[in-house]
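note to self: dont lose this again. the chain is below, predicted strucutre after it. 317 aa total, dont forget to put it in the shared folder this time
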Amino acid sequence: MNKGDQGTRQTTGPIGALVNVVRGFLIGMAELVPGISGGTVALVVGVYERLIDSGMSLMRGVKHLVGDRSQAKRTFAATDLVLIAALLAGMAIAVFSMAGTMANFVDNHAPIARALFLGMVAVSIYVPFSMVDRSEVKKRPWVWIVFAVAAALTFVGTGVTSATQESPSMPIVFVAAAVAVCALVLPGISGSFFLLAVGLYQPVMAAVADRDLGFMAVFAAGAMTGILLFVRVLDYLLENHRAVTLVTMAGLMLGSLRALWPWQDADANLLAPGADWPAMLGWFALGAAAVVVTLVAEHFLQKDDRDQVDKFTEHVE
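---
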């Protein structure tokens, strides 16, 4: 990740921009589903670090606007604004078009939804591990203790639920949004599940579906505050403590699987598998297969991009 203002901007063509809109749509869909982290999906579709890096560069540019505008222009020029715009567009499409549908799916077909997403997240744990430098882990074997603690804390935390708040106050909505949006940049933590745990999932989904602009404005303000505060911390951790951070993310993802166990009661207590276990196994396999296909496709897309860069370099030389 680039810490300086003169970062390396990755050029995105029309097809690439369209692909990023689709990626944003998938991230937005994940943000609507309790138990699924938008950060996890960002990792799976291959834009996680680019998104964090671009977000940090954008914030640096805004900061420079106050003092050195020429520096701000250079910073914005080095920022992948096309990536940010495409992802935001895809997320907006997902949120505004699918909020009601996803809420109904999760509410009315909860076991199927959880089994499907369980398969997706279980396979996705591979992603942060694949980004870790093995030599760094060997130097710090204690990271596995951090992994276990992160998994245990998330496992316990996802067992907490709360009754739906019928008329939440706006300050509560603001603070909840600031916390929940951290899931957008932290794989393994589900913002929607946090909202469900504090009784705000249904009010937020209803506000989006009903286009309650006042409610959405307060939520958006809280979300922006949370991103501004948290992205800087995460950027520092990935730059200076990469292996520990990625292993911790994997632990968070592992612990979050508890929320996606298909058989549980209204209080999130885990139950034994029911007679429908063959069907649930099928949904689990479908979710896992979807992520495997995505990872394989992403691998070949990245390989193709690298080949094009190598050819361009050879031509220039």
